[in-house]
């Protein structure tokens, strides 16, 4: 094996097919997404904050990153998060997306599946520290790439 | 001029979500038609925010929750 053989190309694409959206990824992208989504699920279900070297974040701070204050006051905003906790903390979409990553591509998504992916990637982005979620960051570019390809595949006029 | 709908949801611009994705979500979440969704997304991008009026607090809260659980930044209050 020479050096070229050792290079694994990152790849994700989504194209429209008659019964939905066909998704194809390289194995390393599947593994990376599955690992990151597992962190998201642990946070949504158990308030476990992903560890990052040199960064200490509380569960409350991460929650407010994912679900920012919606009312003018913190008290009203916390009440809203509590009233809608089941919906905000629903791990169903992320669990389904993680299962698809672990099972491996290709697979076909219907519109509900596309919504699972777009929402999960959207939350995944907000779980990252600020510097890692911007469009200029590697992770930020990947999240945007995935979401945009899915949207354009399901709705080419978007 | 009042819309007669006393609750207002504000979608805030951010530097992370792409225009086609936001427009798609506004449309598929059932709030606005295709052209209006794109117009609203671009308005948020240019002006920093765009508002949607609702008849009840419950409707407005539901809308905020659905936007936030997809990684968009939304808030609400009295119109």
**Could you tell me which chain pair has the largest interface and how many residues each side has?**
A-B, 37 and 25 residues
H-E string of chain A: HEEHHHHHEHHH
Q: Could you estimate the helical fraction of the residues of chain B in percent?
A: 40-55%
Largest sheet properties of chain B: 3 strands, antiparallel
Write the layout of secondary structure elements.
The complex is a heterodimer of chains A (158) and B (79).
Chain A: H1 3-6, E1 12-17, E2 20-25, H2 27-46, H3 59-66, H4 74-83, H5 85-88, H6 92-103, E3 107-109, H7 111-127, H8 130-133, H9 138-154
Antiparallel strand pairs in A: 1-2, 2-3
Chain B: E1 7-12, H1 19-28, H2 34-47, E2 49-54, H3 57-68, E3 74-78
Antiparallel strand pairs in B: 1-2, 1-3
Write a structural description.
The complex is a heterodimer of chains A (158) and B (79). By secondary structure, chain A is mainly alpha-helical. Chain A has helices at 3-6, 27-46, 59-66, 74-83, 85-88, 92-103, 111-127, 130-133, 138-154; strands at residues 12-17, 20-25, 107-109. A three-stranded antiparallel beta sheet of chain A has the order 1-2-3. In chain A, a hairpin with a 2-residue loop joins strand 1 (12-17) and strand 2. In chain A, helix 6 packs across helix 7 (111-127). Chain A is globular and about 50 Å long. Chain A starts with a helix and ends with a helix. The model of chain A has no long low-confidence stretch (mean pLDDT 92). With 79 residues, chain B is α+β, with helices and mostly antiparallel strands. Chain B is built from three helices and three strands, in the order E-H-H-E-H-E. In chain B, strands 2-1-3 form a three-stranded antiparallel beta sheet. The N and C termini of chain B lie close together (11 Å). The model of chain B has no long low-confidence stretch (mean pLDDT 92). Chains A and B meet through helix 7 and helix 9 of A and helix 1, helix 3 and strand 3 of B.
């Amino acid at each position: 094996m020479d050096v070229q053989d050792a290079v694994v190309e990152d790849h994700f694409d989504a194209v429209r097919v008659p019964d939905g959206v066909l998704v194809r990824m390289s194995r390393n992208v599947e593994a990376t997404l599955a690992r990151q989504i597992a962190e998201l699920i642990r946070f949504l279900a158990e308030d476990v904050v992903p560890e990052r070297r040199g960064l200490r974040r509380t569960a409350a701070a991460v929650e407010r990153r994912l679900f920012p204050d919606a009312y003018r006051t913190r008290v009203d905003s916390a009440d809203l998060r509590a009233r809608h906790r089941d919906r905000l903390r629903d791990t169903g979409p992320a669990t389904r997306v993680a299962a698809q990553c672990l099972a491996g591509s290709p697979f076909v998504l219907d519109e509900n599946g596309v919504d699972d992916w777009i929402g999960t990637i959207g939350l995944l982005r907000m779980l990252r520290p600020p510097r890692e979620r911007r469009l200029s960051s590697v992770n930020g570019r990947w999240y945007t790439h995935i979401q945009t390809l899915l949207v354009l595949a399901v709705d080419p006029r978007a | 001029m009042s819309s007669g709908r006393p609750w207002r949801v504000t979608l805030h611009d951010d530097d992370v979500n792409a225009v086609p994705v936001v427009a798609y979500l506004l449309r598929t979440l059932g709030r606005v038609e295709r052209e209006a969704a794109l117009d609203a997304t671009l308005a948020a991008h240019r002006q920093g925010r765009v508002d949607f009026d609702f008849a009840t607090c419950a409707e407005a809260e539901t809308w905020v929750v659905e936007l936030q659980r997809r990684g968009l930044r939304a808030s609400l209050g009295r119109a």
